[in-house]
Design brief:
- It is built from 3 helices and no strands.
- By secondary structure, the protein is an all-alpha fold.
């Protein structure tokens, strides 16, 4: 058996081993946590400020007769 044939056989063996491992992934790599870039409290505060300021603006326009 020549060197190139041995190398080819070794590559085939490695390939055959990998074929049986396909789709088998460790559970730690597939588990995902809820990684929020913005926390729920900060998001709630932002929504409160935006909605509150828009309500305040509407009330101001109504009380001033529509001209701001």
């Amino acid at each position: 058996m020549t060197t190139s044939r041995r190398l080819a056989d070794r590559k085939v063996e490695r390939f055959e081993k990998n074929v049986t491992k396909r789709g088998v992934v460790a559970e730690t790599t597939t588990k995902k946590k809820n990684n929020y870039t913005v926390g729920p409290v900060l998001l709630g505060f932002f929504v409160f400020v935006v909605i509150g300021s828009s309500l305040f603006q509407m009330i101001r326009m109504v009380t001033s007769g529509g001209a701001a």
